[in-house]
Automatic annotation (TrEMBL):
Keywords: Metal-binding, Zinc, Zinc-finger. GO terms for cellular component: nucleus. SUPFAM superfamilies: HIT/MYND zinc finger-like (SSF144232). This is MYND-type domain-containing protein. It comes from Coniophora puteana (strain RWD-64-598) (Brown rot fungus). Coiled coil: none annotated. Residues 1245-1289 form the MYND-type domain. The lineage of its organism: Eukaryota, Fungi, Dikarya, Basidiomycota, Agaricomycotina. It holds the Pfam family DUF4470.
């Protein structure tokens, strides 16, 4: 019920993903065991990539425990098949066949043999949970329940059943080929960016080749489309045939009736990193830009496809080696115990949100049986019957990855259900991913997509962080590791609408308040034992705004259904416009669950239960009054009140009106409750839709695509809709036990009981004898006020869905699938409890429960009090009051000791007075420059009041590092393994700058480019220093890659030199402290679709290098002075120098894994500070990694020019810092020379998009008076566009041709 019930006959099958794999542990503390939850897990490539990233040699650096959930059983069956094959001792011989089986539509005979043999083994092992536990696969693969094992076993059985003899296989292949051909022709002119995305920064060069390969794959059914491979591939791949949305290949005789369930946009090589493959091609070769298919085929067959297969084989072998070492005894002379698997996987087949609820239920109540259905359209409950005393399923996770479920389930649903399962640590990570673009109110897909995160959040991101306790790390930091502008630019280059926009975010709990954190980061926000406290009326205003944004278009759709506009030829088609469309992510149950999660977060620190309940009642009363005050969504108001009541959040007068007791006494007058004893506040309505009626309406429902279903209760004075419904195919049985006898819940209310018997899904419906049973909760008072009501199952079409007159003739003008009077006992039953399950309220849980009180030296912190702005949209101030409790501290405060404050971390303020200190912890970054102190010396408390720093450009919190028991932890920078990244061979060719420059330029937004060009001032001095660091990174990366431009963003260039190259931050000859950056190469950060400089850094301090002439007496001193001829000087002022000293420890820490570890005497730990210092004449780095591995690189080897520096340098990874597209306008425009790509649309208004012939002015478009480039049809359009154009205007004017 958390999502609307969809009629989804044609759900696509995703046997493998369409984005490159990721490493799930890149944002965790190095070496710490990781428990990882994968929702919508898809194929196992990212699992294998994570194992590969954590493996050095043959050893895995951490224990990996994966819990994998997917609603598609075919995905899990394929995953288990592949992973169990990799446990074979002869896996090397299997790899080519495994590629064919996992990716190709058509396979050869050897692949069929592999499928037959290993499916047979799996069927023998999966007869029951007991046989699986006894199998060799149980050591690394488990199932959470019997149902999951049964589902995947069913797929393995169907795989074997469809291994046909050649004569039958040819017929099936022809039919399958016909289906793939239809799918391929349906692409038409559609621009599919998915295959191109895998090339990362080289996407523009890969576009034609990858799209050619995509088309060839769907034409031939094989990845390697050479004649020999096509000739061998004579069998249809059974693993790609069977899915929820596919047809049964053996039943229909007409090939046109066969449905191919596989999604039409998949292409196997796109699942791997292909930037290196295209970087090795000669990009200057003109044939690559031509349409000659033979050239494209050669590139694909000789470079691209082999590169993808090589990665697949490497990942498989890493997993195979890890698994095949399990249980092997140690050597005879060794005292070590047998090895254990570094990786374990537990699989669950079902709905992701239901699985999250079930995990919380299992954790909170320690019950294996849960009240949650495993999937929509199913009454099967989730029961963890595979668990035992010796095995358990995790209920708290270091990492939760939600794939692209945000597009289907909604961001708020994802956050509501996952945050209670995320560990209460500042260093746990929640990943969300989106591919679906959004349009703004003007229909602009690109502008809408850039703001899509805020739209999906339904409120300000800072406010959302306070409500749910998690926030995007890039929102706090103001930068991310992944570029975001390439896809939009690619769509504009080919002049097609934006079909996809890939955005992957990491959500974090707030930063700890101190640099040193314990083994447990604390309860709230990773280290703070507090809650957040709102003014009830202000919180109600926030919640009202969220509700309006979640359901703001309900009334529009209802009105549209009353006045369907006629469209299409002949006037026989009906179409819903965009203006009347509504999202398919949320129901009123979704909102109630969100409110429950918010209540848990904002009320957790209340001083006592009575105050908490009183405050919450004020909030809910105010909220319902606001929602009741306007007409939007009033048809769903009772549904909302029911869901709030069921979750124990609030009981409105709709549920228990003042006259309800009197109505209950007169309930005999109502046929609905005739004979009832006690009438509950809410009752369950069971609507039985005859199977014959469903079969009649099926074609009409299919014509509508994937409409949402809802129930309606209507009468002469009643018209209410209920979207929170459950459905399943089967039959209902009415319990005729006489009142007073034992009949379960009915005995309590002396009412009838309806029991449900589930059938085999739609098969039972097709074979007859099964009905569609709908269940939903309503207020009992609705039947007391008007007994003569009707109940209907209605359809809500999607945006732009259209249908013909035949559909309207079947469903009627109100699109009712079926309706019946309440007193029709054949089809409507009003009962006390759902026939599917006992209604169980779940408030979202509290994560891991309360943790121990955080140690405080001199005081106790109260809740963080929040004040919202006048519109109740954004946080105005946060205030924290600390009562001083220590006697000495109180005396010092009362004695007039000066009170000062400074940042302890981005989210904490350290207050100092008279030798005493206390850290005031906040849930969001603090703008320390605008913070205020309130000191009550007599009352002995200190309060800090501060606004939120929306971007963390505070002095010492740009790149925070915290010290944990497992070592330093990064908060906003991902870890990378430099040695595993492809090293570019430089110079590649004279055109390398064609992709390196856009990759580095795209880290600047239009606003940032304007600041660097001196066209506008920076927000603060620290902000300017941050931009100067970004500018220097641009010079270092682009310069090391041989960019021949004389200047780069105003900084002197490096001419035609290439890496190895040395840069100087400051001047080591003239100042006491300077930093040398030795760049030995530029690598492709394939996972981030970016580049990274492989650098070694050295801070030249007086202790290391005395002043002249004493410095010339040492080899290091002479080497420094010998750098004069090759040193590229980057002059830095004091502010930028401090910013660099914060960046360098993070750049070192992110790439040290597998190379060296911090020792017990690490200076970070001894001084409890990272960086060690930011002052002059000191080194910010610890000495643990100094000189490690330098001698392995050519310039530092004996006899080479940098050999003297080898013992003193520390390796660092310097990457571009990309401005988030959802925060900054014009991200990526600088990558195209500062030209706004709307310049390409020379004949349209930049604001409304109208061409001249439709413009308001008969004379055509007029140009902007400043830049003379932007064009508008009217003054109002220009004024409307100014907020977008203002910063581009100055750059366009500067770069416009004279």
């Amino acid at each position: 019920m958390s999502c609307p019930l969809l009629w989804s006959e044609n759900e696509p099958f995703y046997p493998y993903g369409d984005t490159s794999p990721v490493c799930y542990t890149q944002d965790l503390v190095d070496g710490e065991p990781a428990s990882i939850l994968l929702l919508g897990c898809g194929d196992p490539m990212s699992i294998l990539q994570t194992l590969h990233a954590n493996t050095t040699g043959s050893q895995c650096s951490r224990k990996l425990d994966f819990t994998c959930c997917d609603h598609e059983g075919g995905v899990l069956a394929r995953n288990v098949f592949l992973l169990t094959c990799l446990a074979d001792d002869y896996v090397l011989d299997l790899l080519p066949s495994l590629w064919n089986l996992f990716f190709d539509f058509f396979i050869d005979k050897s692949s069929v043999t592999v499928l037959f043999v290993y499916c047979g083994k799996l069927l023998d092992a999966s007869k029951s949970l007991e046989t699986w536990d006894a199998s060799p696969y149980h050591g690394f693969i488990k199932f959470s329940d019997t149902n999951t094992l049964s589902v995947v076993r069913g797929h393995w059985e169907r795989y074997l059943a469809n291994i046909l003899p050649p004569e039958d296989a040819n017929h099936l292949k022809d039919r399958f080929a016909s289906a793939t051909h239809r799918a391929q022709t349906q692409h038409g002119s559609w621009f599919n960016y998915s295959p191109v995305r895998s090339a990362g920064p080289l996407a523009s060069f890969a576009m034609r080749t990858m799209l050619h390969g995509f088309r060839k794959f769907w034409e031939t059914g094989v990845t390697s489309h050479d004649c020999e491979t096509i000739a061998r591939a004579q069998y249809v791949n059974p693993t790609l045939v069977h899915s929820r949305g596919a047809g049964e290949p053996g039943t229909p005789e007409d090939s046109d009736t066969f449905k191919l369930g596989v999604h039409k946009g998949l292409y196997p090589p796109a699942r791997f990193y292909l930037a290196k493959a295209f970087a090795t091609l000669n990009l200057a070769e003109p044939n690559l830009a031509q349409k000659d298919s033979s050239v494209q085929d050669a590139s694909l067959l000789k470079v691209v496809v082999p590169a993808a297969q090589k990665q697949f084989f490497r990942l498989c072998m890493v997993f195979s080696r890890a698994i095949r070492q399990v249980g092997r005894p140690a050597a005879a002379d060794s005292t070590e115990s047998p090895s254990h698997s570094p990786i374990s996987l537990t699989f669950f087949c079902g709905d992701a949100l239901a699985f999250c609820k079930a995990l919380q239920h299992h954790r909170d109540k320690n019950e294996l049986s849960t009240p949650f259905a495993s999937a929509p359209w199913s009454a099967t409950r989730i029961v963890f019957d595979a668990l035992s005393d010796s095995s358990s399923i995790p209920t708290s996770f270091d990492v939760i990855d939600t794939s692209t479920l945000t597009d289907d389930l909604g961001l708020l649903n994802i956050l509501t259900h996952t945050t209670p399962l995320l560990k209460r640590s500042s260093f746990s990570a929640l990943y969300t991913e989106t591919l679906a673009p959004c349009r703004d109110k003007d229909g602009d897909a690109i502008a809408g997509t850039l703001r899509s995160l805020v739209r999906r959040a339904c409120c300000d991101l800072g406010t959302l962080a306070l409500l749910l306790g998690v926030v995007p790390a890039s929102y706090v930091s103001g930068f991310g590791a992944r570029p975001s502008g390439f896809e939009m630019m690619a769509h504009r280059m080919v002049r097609v609408p934006l079909s996809q926009f890939h955005e992957r975010l990491v959500w974090r709990r707030p930063m700890p308040g101190t640099t040193v954190v314990g083994s447990q980061s604390g309860a709230r926000g990773g280290g703070a034992g507090y809650g957040v406290e709102f003014v009830p009326e202000e919180l109600a205003g926030v919640l009202e705004g969220v509700y309006r944004r979640m359901f703001g278009r309900e009334r529009g759709l209802d009105e549209a259904m009353e006045r369907l506009s006629v469209g299409g030829a002949g006037g026989d088609g009906r179409r819903f416009s965009d203006a009347a469309s509504v999202g398919t992510c949320y129901t009123q149950r979704s909102y109630a669950e969100l409110v429950a999660a918010i209540r848990e977060n904002v009320c957790a620190g209340a001083p006592n239960a009575e105050e908490m309940e009183a405050s919450w009642r004020r909030t809910m009363d105010a909220l319902l009054e606001l929602l009741r005050g306007e007409g939007d969504g009033q048809r769903y108001f009772q549904d909302l009140c029911v869901q709030l009541h069921l979750l124990g959040l609030h009981t409105a007068d709709v549920i228990q009106p003042p006259a309800l007791d009197e109505q209950r006494q007169n309930c005999d007058s109502s046929a609905v409750f005739s004979g009832w004893g006690t009438i509950p506040a809410t009752v369950c309505v069971v609507l039985v839709v005859p199977g014959q009626r469903v079969r009649e309406a099926k074609s009409s429902l299919d014509e509508l695509g994937t409409p949402t279903l809802r129930c309606e209760i209507f009468g002469s004075a009643t018209d209410q809709a209920f979207a929170s419904i459950e459905a399943a195919y089967g039959n209902v049985l009415v319990d005729t036990t006489a009142p007073g006898e034992e009949n379960g819940v009915g005995d309590r209310y002396r009412c009838k009981v309806v029991r449900f018997v589930e059938s085999d899904g739609e098969r039972g419906l097709k074979e007859g004898g099964s009905d569609l049973v709908i269940s939903f909760q309503v207020p009992a008072a609705i039947f007391m006020a008007e007994p003569a009501l009707s109940v209907a199952l209605a359809v809500r079409p999607q945006a732009k869905s259209s249908f013909g007159s035949s559909t309207e003739s079947v469903l009627g003008p109100k699109l009712h699938v079926f309706s019946s009077r309440v007193d029709d006992e054949r089809h409507v039953h009003v009962v006390a409890q759902s026939p599917f399950h006992p209604e169980c309220a779940s408030n979202g849980g509290t994560g891991e429960g309360s943790s121990a009180d955080v140690h405080r030296r001199v005081g106790e912190q109260e809740n963080v009090k929040i004040v919202m702005d006048d519109k109740h949209e954004k946080v105005e101030t946060m205030s924290v009051r600390v009562d001083v409790v220590g006697a000495d501290a109180r005396e010092a405060l009362a004695g007039g000791a000066a009170v000062q404050m400074a940042l302890a971390s981005g989210c904490a303020v350290r207050v100092l007075w008279g030798g005493h200190t206390h850290v005031h912890a906040f849930p969001l970054p603090v703008d320390i420059e605008k913070a205020k102190l309130r000191v009550a010396r007599r009352s002995s408390y200190i309060e800090v009041v501060a606004p939120v720093a929306t971007v963390m450009h505070t002095h010492n919190m740009l790149f925070p590092i915290f010290l944990t028991p497992h070592g330093p932890a990064l908060w906003n920078m991902p870890r990378i393994a430099l040695d595993k990244l492809p090293l570019l061979v430089l110079p590649n060719n004279e055109h390398v700058s064609r992709w390196i420059v856009p990759c580095t330029d795209s880290m600047f937004s239009l606003r940032e480019s304007a600041i660097l060009d001196g066209l506008r001032p920076a927000d603060t001095d620290t902000h300017r220093a941050f931009l100067d660091v970004k500018n220097a990174l641009h010079t270092i990366i682009a310069g090391a890659a041989r960019i021949p431009s004389p200047t780069v963003n105003g900084i002197p260039g490096v001419g035609h030199r290439t890496a190895p190259l040395v840069f100087g931050l400051g001047n080591p000859r003239e100042v006491r402290c300077a930093t040398l950056v030795f760049v030995t190469g530029v690598r492709l950060d394939v996972a981030a679709h970016s580049v990274v400089a492989d650098a070694w850094v050295l801070t030249v301090t007086p202790a290391l290098l005395p002043r002249r002439p004493a410095s010339l007496a040492s080899p290091l001193g002479r080497a420094v002075w010998d750098l004069a001829d090759e040193l590229v000087q980057l002059n830095t002022d004091a502010r930028e120098a401090r910013a660099w000293k914060h960046l360098l420890p993070a750049a070192v820490e992110r790439c040290r894994a597998g190379r060296w570890a911090h020792g017990a005497a690490c200076e970070y730990r001894v001084r409890e500070a990272v960086p060690l210092t930011v002052g002059d004449e000191t080194d910010p780095l610890c000495s643990c990694g100094r000189g490690v591995g330098a001698g392995e690189h050519a310039p530092f080897r004996a006899g080479e020019r940098w050999h003297a520096f080898a013992p003193h340098v520390t390796r660092a990874a310097l990457s571009p810092l990309y401005a988030p597209a959802y925060m900054e306008s014009g991200v990526g425009v600088a990558a195209f020379g500062g030209r706004d790509t709307r310049m390409e649309e020379r004949d349209v208004c930049w604001a409304c998009g109208k061409p001249p012939r439709r413009a308001a002015l008969a004379t055509g478009l007029q140009v902007c008076g400043k830049c003379r480039v932007a064009k508008y049809c009217s003054g109002p359009c220009q004024k409307k566009d100014w907020d977008k154009h203002r910063w581009a205007c100055a750059i366009l004017k500067k770069n416009a041709p004279s």
